[in-house]
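fwd from M.: "can u put these together and see what the complex looks like"

so here's what she sent:
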Amino acid sequence: MAKSGILKRWADKYGIVIKVQRFDYAASLDAFVGKNIDACTMTNMEALDMPAAAGVDSTALIIGDYSNGNDAILARNNLTLAQLPGKRIMLVQKTVSEYLLERAMDLNGLGTQIPQLRLMNTSDSDLVGAFLGNKSNQIAVTWKPLVSQIVNSDQSVKSLFDSSKIPAEILDLLVVRTDVLKRSDGSGIRFAKAISGAWYETVAQLAGAGSASDQAIAGSAAASGDSVVSYREQLRTTYLYSTAKSAAEFSEGPAIKQKMDLVRQFCFRHQLLGQNIASVNDVAILYPDGTVQGKSDRVRLRIDSSYMRMAEKGRL
Amino acid sequence: MAAIPILGKIVDVQSRPQKLWTQSLSWVLFLVGIFTYTQFSIARHKENPEDRVVPSSAQLLQGLKASFLEPAEEDDALDPSAGITQRLAHSMLWKDTVSSSRRFFIAIALLVPAILLGLHMAVFPYAEALFLRFGLFFDKIVALSLLPILFIVFGIDEWSKIMLMVIGVGPTMMLDTYNIAKAVPREQVVKAFTLKSSNADVAYRVILKQIMPQVINGLRLNLKPLALFLFAGEMIVSTDGLAYRIGIMRRHMGMDIIIPYLLWVAVLLFGVDALLKFANRRLHPWF
């Protein structure tokens, strides 16, 4: 988006300067919570347990996509979900991987056995090597491209469950600090408009056909340090809200509330909202229709569809 | 200089400050640190009362309580009637300390062969010829880069983490011992032989005995690299341990737990260092 000049064009249109800074994922969240950056892309889960739980009022401007098979539970020896308790499971704990695992157990009527799962926290940088290096590691939960790396190098590893069975629960959001949007000189709103405009122009290219799409995919793959083949493979298992309309409709519908409730309950159960948060309702979510999930005086995460609607109607 | 007496004293090599001065000066930087932290925290909380990046004293207290008195999140909750000792024994901090310490002390025990190898290299020329060049080479390998291999060879349980520490610090300890033992004057060896010493006597009763205090001091300096390798291992793959908890807490900005943990690790390392220093003084009063 930055390299192609799209972002620059939109920033110029609104008379602002947008600087794109690349981070490791965890470090980008730290910087966002530390208020060193104004906007950041993250999953719905991290939006809740990082900025919102740390009292940084945040607004999700764009719902970009959801994981539709990007996250998976992998196992050797034809294990089934019912056989997981008691066996060692490698994953990055307290992330969407653990969420996926618990949802898989729940949906298959094994919810009561979740406490018997033996989790081994494994850094994503070493997970593939450690899992493949030793056949006695039977189960791993991770995301793409790591999933593809594992499955491609060992044919005996099968996917037991993946995020396509829990659609729209692992969302990718573009989040802006609410105090940035409220800047009195209006620069925050111009920033939000510029970035939304650039976003949907880029997404239209990615989702389109022909050479423009190929170029956009090649650019995005290179920017994320991935090969075009692997990137396309990831796009296949990502449900991209390719139009502003579809994203806005989802954000205003009833489904998102139900999905977010699952996620916030998970965060609370695992103390991800902090030691001093006594109730799940203390980190409340405001939806576009004005309803609040949680205590109305403790809104920390806002889902805002207005910029997506503006993009839809071409008013940016 | 004489015009400004106090300045004159500060730059005077031969000044003898009063005990009150030396005692109070040694605490100044601690106070500055605490003061700066508090100010920073207050400023951040004024802007955002729920800030978790620089926890306030109340948040830290809560974090301390959670680490010292409450079981880890993955363990079963404790009976509310449990006494304080029982609470401490089942606490998150204690559980993590036990598992980290076990790895730490096993690694230290495994450094003993490295120390003995260094001694033998210095004393026996054939051992020197065989091991020295390879030892010098192996010492330069960055142990962390071997981690994928360690996982394959030692699995992802305890041994890969312990071996990471041993491979990281072992060669340094070996070469350190080698250098110290080499520095023992040759005359002493000759003298020992003229007094009917055997080869073993020279190696263990003449050289090893007198280099022991220096070797222990070398180990004291290597405590920090040991802890560093332990942390690296635990952060990459583990189910418990002090660095495991810090890694997990980092995922959601649990600085209220991380800061007490950091201080606790510092206290533990300080304790091990003090213990070694004490042992050294007791065992080798002549040093």
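replying to her w this: Chain A has 13 helices and twelve strands.
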